[in-house]
Fold each of these.
Amino acid sequence: MNAKVTLEKMSVHFGANHAVKGVDLDFAANSVTAIIGPSGCGKSTLLRAINRMHDLVPSARVSGRIMLDSHDIYERSIDPVAIRRKIGMVFQKPNPFPAMSIYDNVIAGYKLNNGVQRSVADEIVESCLKRVALWDEVKDRLKTSAMDLSGGQQQRLCIARTIAVQPEVILMDEPCSALDPIATLKIEELIDELKERYTIIIVTHNMQQAARVSDATAFMYLGELVESGATRKIFTTPEKRQTEDYITGRFG
Amino acid sequence: MRSITLRNWQNHAATAMMLLGTVAVLVPLALVFFHILRMGFSSLSLDFFTNIPKPTGESGGGMANGLLGSAIMITLSACIGLPIGILGAVYLTEFGGGKLANTIRFSADVLAGVPSIITGMVAYTLLVVPMKGFSALAGAVALALIMIPIVLRTTEEQLKMVPGTLREASLALGVPLWRTSLQVMLKTATKGIVTGVLLAIARIAGETAPLLFTALGNQFWSRKLTEPMAALPLQIFSFAIAPYEDWHKLAWAGALVLVVVMFTLNIGARLMGRSARQS
Ligand SMILES: Nc1ncnc2c1ncn2[C@@H]1O[C@H](COP(=O)(O)OP(=O)(O)OP(=O)(O)O)[C@@H](O)[C@H]1O
Ligand SMILES: [Mg+2]
């Protein structure tokens, strides 16, 4: 297995708060890696470091190395905008652009940059909405506001928006936590399909979800990576006591 | 038992006081409005909108030049004030967290509190004196100085209400921060910002003092920005203090038009604000 993204002694500080502590971790290409761990252990912080979202937070400092195809994404010469084009992100709460229609939301990555030809845009919108299984539900109202969709539909729209710009890696931070079980199932099926083309890293609080969708799992606790490996192994024969306690719900 | 009657009584008393307060606010407003309507309506005619003032002694005439002058100067001051105010607010919310941002905020608050006649004097010193003459341009700058802090602070408030997750969503699509600020954050806040802009325009539409030493006023048509220009509030002012009955009537008509314009702008702003909150 070749690694698409590699963390080497990666740490994140917020001022004096050491939120992620020297994590070494590989994310394999075309697979789903789940990051699990109790609230506040630094899962989101680790995830957001991978597409340089912390650049916006003045107190945040990322150290160590994060490699995308063995190039350090924090190197001085590298433009964070170019990195984010390759590493997309889906957020915990569905966040479609409220001032845009469904159509414009899907094509937002192009529209907000240099624009795109109408015919090309039509194609992208249709194919992306089909891939997130939203096309049939919205094809007759593409020009209406994205805010009229249900939460689950909005989240699928956000995924469509993310894959429309053809990233290589997709980060997902608890993408189903605001959704009901049926919408969750749809997103999980979608993740399974998406991994053929993308490298997916997903943070989740739901153990069943991690077991269902992921190929590899990493368990974090208090900012440190406790254990990582094939999902089946982590869930059946974990090496560390802490991992076992967390997975079986005997934690704390 | 006694405590319940007491509480009921207190309740009634409080309601009555609030009712009284409402009436105390509404009665003067209604009085002003109806008085202006009564005095203005009888003197309002087509002439008012199409003619310039007649020389003293002749009857008739209108304030068409003042209406046009006000429209020109308000447009010009909006062209100066809106970009500065709105882009300044984008800077404050999106890029500025430091000392400079706080200094700008503080200055805007101070500027908003400066009496408008002083703003007029500033524009006089900065523009009228060096340009050796009163001008519409100086008037527009004075109005823009009043407009900037209002637009800046209301836009900032509106931008703060846009969820930060939209900024992150846009950045995660590989959109640069400056495009994100303008095309996502500012655009999402558009309706609320338009509300603030309409209120700011309503505010400067009625300003008289800052125009006294800048645009000065003009009895004739004036289209050059480098020359004195008529403005509705200035004309109302000078006609109202003139010793002629005819001019007083025109002043009332002007006041009516001004009040209707402000009323319309305020209602427009409210409607905009309401639909902004719904979406
Ligand atoms: N923007 C920030 N500024 C300062 N500290 C932060 C910031 N974001 C996160 N932290 C801190 O980093 C630590 C890890 O937070 P993080 O959000 O990564 O946890 P998490 O594992 O995602 O938790 P949850 O499961 O509840 O989402 C916490 O101590 C938090 O207070
Ligand atoms: Mg989190």
Note: Residues 118-131 of chain A form the longest helix (14 residues).
Amino acid sequence: MLPTSLDEAVEALAASPAAVPVAGGTDLMEAVNAGRLRPAALIGLGRITELRGWRYEDGGTAVLGAGLTLARMDRPDFAALIPALADAARTAGPPQTRNVGTLGGNIATAAPAGDTLPVLAALEASVTLARPGATREVPVSHLLTGLDPMRPGELLTWVRVPLLNAPQVFLKATGRSGPSRATASVALVLDPARRAVRCAVGAVAPVPLRPLEAEAWVAGCIDWDARGEEGVPAIDPAASAAFGEYVATACVPDGYGADAASGLAVEGPTAVALRLRRTVAVLARRALGRALK
Amino acid sequence: MTNHPVHPVDERPCASYTLRVNGFERPVTDAWIGESLLYVLRERLGLAGAKNGCEQGECGACSVQVDGQLVAGCLVPAALAADSEISTVEGLSAGGAASDVQQALADSGAVQCGYCTPGMAMAVHDLLQRNHRPSEVEARQALCGNLCRCTGYRSALAAVQTVADARSAALLEAEEAAAEVAASAEPAEPAEPVQVQAESEVPDLPVYQDAWTETAAAGEVPVFGNDDSGWIVAQPFEAPPVYDAPQAYAASQDFEAAQPFEDVPPFEGTPMPGPDQSAGGYQPLPTAAGTGVGVGVVPPQGYPGYDPTAYGPGTVYAAGATYEPTPAHGTSAPGAPFEGTPAHGTPYEPTPAHGTPYGTPAHGTPAQGTGYPGYPDQQYAGAPYEGAGYEGTPYDRTSYDGVGYDGTVYEPAPAAPYDAASAHGLRLPEDDHA
Ligand SMILES: Cc1cc2nc3c(=O)[nH]c(=O)nc-3n(C[C@H](O)[C@H](O)[C@H](O)COP(=O)(O)OP(=O)(O)OC[C@H]3O[C@@H](n4cnc5c(N)ncnc54)[C@H](O)[C@@H]3O)c2cc1C
Ligand code: FES
Ligand code: FES
């Protein structure tokens, strides 16, 4: 069924709890085609027009509809608003899936390689979950880590993102040059008002990771007053490189990729871990460099 | 995270709905709700143009347009596309003739096995609808979701430019003609300004020519209104074509059993001879929606001007030279000197049998089975390589750990000197900034 308003959809989901909400269907139909999912009923969210745009709220917050498509987020007006989210959306799959795949679907799927997730984590966004007659607000990090998961019958409706009006970068390493899922990704946003750097690393773990210590350390290394001035480096290149290493070591554990079943005691980081760390370090260093350019 | 209940009430919930495909209403009855648009188009509606390459959204062979947007047909639940406008590759070739996009793809050599072609044609069509003058980069980005195992994409990109050029030339011509008409109707009015405008208009077409770009309020995605604004104009509605095929397959909802459609070669409108036909099989109809033209690129034998006898052996060519059989390699043709294969002026020698060492490989790339120059004694046996473990290229002095990684933990190089160069050794401009 195809409800045209949010209330209708929430009611429909409550009335038939076995039904599956479908936004773009790009993740859902993949599971159906592969035989991993047999939906009892489908509730299409594509006709709920209010969820397909965004609005602004006092205090510098953008409220993004869950039905905002990845392709829409790539357009210049949105990219001016939340550049890192636009960058993430631009690289998330081929045009055929970005045309219909949605922000809400990306969050609800919560795939490790979900490209919007590290950006939302770095931006410290929160989501609104709706059920008949009630809504609740959950930070994205709590939702993704399972601290406060989505409950059956709930619909993800809005994503609240603070507008920082400062450089933000999303970088992604992939296995091939065409559209593909990330092997590692880094989202980095500057918060000049608080003189803070916020960074999240995606695809290396089931959920995006925040290297909080590295963030705090590098924020102290940045010459915030020189930022944006022509010819004045806002940060020492050595500090920037060290930040990359710091982030990588924080997010990729020594035992990454080790075969626990083999019973071999592993000393030091595995080769896989070293390689992934190198990738993450380069992404993080570059992201910082671009943000401070 | 996804909150799908695990207790299916009905094992196979079905629905009946009507799809609007290429302007025709196509009823679908008692279809499982999990069926993809691709499956319904191919197996229930007999529109086998869109191909099933992966069912996972990766290959783009199933690309169709839903409400004017390019999507992977395999990832659209057909039941939810019920009141959408669906265009398939069959709609491109209205009336059975290849569209300009399809013709250009065929002409530029972008069709080899042809499996990707319907999807590629839809992607090119979609791109040129949105962007009349795509740059190379824009074209690459638009086609990046369409995998082709045969051609290497160059020819598809060339086809994009060909169509773009042809269309803008046609547009210019039409406007010039209109200007001329206007000028002859009103001799006092000089035709000059109109022409200038026409020329400057062509390269400046907006990149995203969505119907809403003009009216979009910031932050809102206007949807297509009830007043028809923004809709892709549907083809005029005609009587729905009568199909007798789908039910035969609907009865056995087994996907395997429905495979025969896979094998119907995409020949235009020519009914396939064979038992399938008499048994109520697939009957291509000469309507836009129903031709079932899979590729629609190779003109059928019998297109106006085709003369099957024209190119027989011994036919006199326009230049007057009689056709002669291709000379054997190495022989110089009498008359016109043969200027074919020999690379770099080296006299061509017959390919040695597999396994014999090759004297001096003309290009340096040894063919399979020839000895590798420099290791004249090591002859490559031609068998699949399965010798001692492939060591791989050491990745910046860290041990190789890719395919064939056996769980052994290699000793990492002691503190690989990390010199702030990027992973692949390239230094990007921002490396100096950071
Ligand atoms: C070829 C291909 C490549 C891809 N590459 C990438 C990539 O590089 N990066 C990336 O991040 N993703 C990628 N994806 C995944 C996918 O495109 C995205 O995750 C997309 O954002 C999913 O959105 P959707 O609207 O299609 O979700 P759907 O498939 O409609 O839904 C996914 C799940 O979320 C639930 N859901 C959807 N909306 C809501 C809602 N509002 N409330 C509650 N539950 C909801 C559905 O029930 C379903 O379980 C790729 C997919 C494909 C097919
Ligand atoms: S079959 Fe749909 S993308 Fe491959
Ligand atoms: S022509 Fe064979 S896949 Fe493209």
Note: The mean pLDDT of chain A is 93.
Amino acid sequence: MSRVTLLTLQVLVAVISIALWYVLTTYPIFGKVLLPPFFFSNPVDVAKQVIAWFVSGVIWKHLWVTLSESILAFVLGSVGGVLVGFWFARQPRTAAVFDPYVKMVNALPRVVLAPIFTLWFGLGIWSKVALGITLVFFIVFFNVYQGVKEVSPTVLANARMLGMNERQLMRHVYWPSALSWMFSSLHTSVGFAVVGAVVGEYLGAAAGLGYLIQQAEGVFDVAGVFAGMFVLAAFVVIIDLLVSMVEKRLLVWRPAVGEGRP
Amino acid sequence: MADSGPATAQNNSAAAVALREVDVAFRLAQGGTYRAVERATLTVADGEFVAIVGPTGCGKSTLLNIAAGLLTPFAGQADIFGAPLSGLNRQAGYLFQADSLFPWKTALENVAIGPETAGVPASEARPRALEWLKRVGLGAFADRYPHMLSGGQRKRVGLAQVLIRDPKILLMDEPFGPLDAQTRQIMGNLLLDLWSADRKAVLFVTHDLEEAIALSDRVVIMSAGPSARIIGDWRVTLPRPRDISEVKLDPAFHELHRDIWHRLKAEVVKGYAQAEGAQ
Ligand SMILES: Nc1ncnc2c1ncn2[C@@H]1O[C@H](COP(=O)(O)OP(=O)(O)OP(=O)(O)O)[C@@H](O)[C@H]1O
Ligand SMILES: [Mg+2]
């Protein structure tokens, strides 16, 4: 499929969905509006709300809050995940001791932590950052751990035969391998940083996209809820595009999927 | 074979590699041990090119790992230039059977990493690496990552990676394994060219008997495992410098080939039978 056809079809899906949404919420079919606007709003109202937010400029503050929470959660969670991942992979005994607790904490639905974080860190950004960190940390941790463990034994033996000491092995073998695993999960971990921020805001905050959605919901402003969701979706898509660009640069040495070589 | 009393250790005429009565046993995950190699004795003189041929799974890679210091024998001893080997063999360059390039480094970086590890600044190591890439015919591929190279090209980068460090001993494990017949010849001639420039001691594993004879000064045959032994040692007196395709036309080559093959064939059949039985 050529790029143009693909893009056309993708746009077509959006157009048809919005048109359906519009028709079903506006015109009665067999004497009945199938999607009552009170629950489903309609595209025109939602668009009006989005435009109003951008024209008045209130949205920028919320976007900025969510963005900074996401970035902080991502950076801090990644640093922690890399350090602990390396530590555990190089110290199998420590890893064995902590293993059940790591599994326990990871199995815990993070949402239940949100109230505790609010208690500890207040309603400001740090309770949301903390929630994001608990999500990002485990993804990065597991990947780095795997990356260090799964270095090809032949590559490792080769590195040692080439005269590398422990520090050089770290720099030229373990580190790149761990990073490649971490980068391959970049989309997931960035996504979770945003999830942590938005869910945290939704559960109690004074600003941010999650807060915006929660406010609208509180007064049954369905158009506001949908508008918040659209802004959030656009926000995530843009971040994902940026991540793809970064990934492409960082992982040049890896065969692209479907290139045919292992 | 030289006697290895403490007095004669370190002497200049000591063999580059001397494996004495080496036994190797692997502990198996499901319990028990597998006796891979038994009482293997093998010497490679300085400047000598020795090929090891044997049925698959007999323990050729295992012997190289011992000479490299990556594996400690269960019994017996490995001497390098007369001194007992403990830890890694710092005088050896090892071209592994499996892919061993750093996938996250370009061909140039892969070759330069040896000198850089030894403390040579990158500004000096990189031009030297490029020089070596040109020598193995890959000057135009310096910026490629390993996954963008063919199997044979990767082997050549590996060769440059090892040779740039100028090791006194060269361990090569089926370096031309995945290549077609023509490329093998080209690579073989390239190797002979590089080797004749400064004769290193070479221990060269192959399953191709013709290749072994064409390249080496001595051909060593191993029996099928378990408890593989070294069962034959032939001297190859064909004149040097050699061209691989020409040397194969030499009647002396054929005679030698017939001799060795006669001994090897029985082992190869035995090797397959054992592999079948093990399943
Ligand atoms: N880590 C290990 N644990 C158990 N058995 C092993 C281990 N490594 C090697 N072996 C066994 O030791 C024997 C010798 O292995 P080796 O790799 O030296 O064979 P090889 O002669 O190089 O074979 P090939 O020509 O196929 O490369 C084989 O039977 C193999 O199954
Ligand atoms: Mg082998």
Note: Residues 258-262 of chain A have pLDDT under 50 and may be disordered.
